Task: structure prediction
Amino acid sequence: MYRIVCVNCGAEYAPEEILYRCTRCDHLLCVEYDLDSIAIDRAAWMRRPLSVWRYRELLPVSGEPVSLQEGGTPLYHLKRIGEELGLPELYAKHEGMNPTGSFKDRGMTVGVSMAMQLGMKSVACASTGNTSASLAAYAAKGGIPAVVILPAGKVALGKVAQALMHGAKVIAIRDNFDKALEMVYSLCLSHGLYLLNSVNPYRLEGQKTIGLETIDQLGGVPDRMVLPVGNAGNISAVHKGLRELRHLGFIEDLPMMTGIQAAGSRPVVDAVEQNFPEVVPCADPETIATAIRIGAPVNAEKALAAIRQTGGTAASVTDEEILAMQRDLARKEGIGVEPASAASVAGVKKLAEAGVIDRSERIVCVVTGHLLKDPETVVKQCEPPIEIDATQESLLSVLYS
Ligand code: AN7
Result:
């Protein structure tokens, strides 16, 4: 049993209403369960496979979900990087290990399932890339058409390839993500497509399972959870899931929610640092981490609450710091992530060096997308393969001379 509730004025809506914002005050909506009446046997939970659907009592989907077996991602101990930073308890949850290579799959399994449950005939999103790849795949699995709108020339190659191959209608606009979202939003309202950006409250329900899995894998609550922030949906979703676990009495404390943005695209960081009541959009976001090249984060209201209520913080990292950490994760830990994902760990490095993070903290970084999403950025950073004649002599000479 659940309702849709406005996070600002508390107005309530029935689950079957197709709404993305409060019709009274225009603020964000969220899904609210009657937690006191939900019976969950935690031992039975733990016997189910680690996945989004382990937590189905806390999800809105009633029938068989549209699933590609999402979630259940590895939680790695970052031993070498942690040692270098003096952080013995540093972990990374590798969301790049989801079916389409990013955490978006957790949101889309729920979002597309809800689209079907609500009887919608088509789905749509704007995207910096991963959302479109994921939506395209889940729409294919659900057998429903998808439209995705991208900022032209600013989406990593692997993500465009996925959206195209999974059969979405892919449209690239000569403008940025924020404009694409504005356009797809109007399109959905005027033509009845189901909007699956993170302003959709059901999608975030799937994403909250990152936090629930982390607790189960770690056997407790980390002191801090660190996420890259673009539209600020994921950090809000993780916070919501953990609040629900606390309400159920499964955990006592919440981690300090910590958001990391790129230096050229940091409206949430500005709001946290300067204690603004709300985020002031950044008109011209720019960063090599194109996934988080977002100037007007739609979920800022929820994210600021998550950060402030848990005593967390926000920080920004430069493109150089992001790329350096992408290489460190790859070469010192064997973990391949795309640039936006490396931002979370780069942010931890910065905050630890600045003394904001205590060295004894148990820290979980969410690394959100796979290395192969953005091969072009990799190729630009690394030396090309050494091409040689096919002789043993040439081989030995490049290896040993
Ligand atoms: C790898 O795909 O917004 O703060 O349209 O792809 O919840 O937006 C992607 C976001 C972090 C930021 N890491 O998450 C999109 C899109 C990766 C991402 C984020 C994104 P939010």
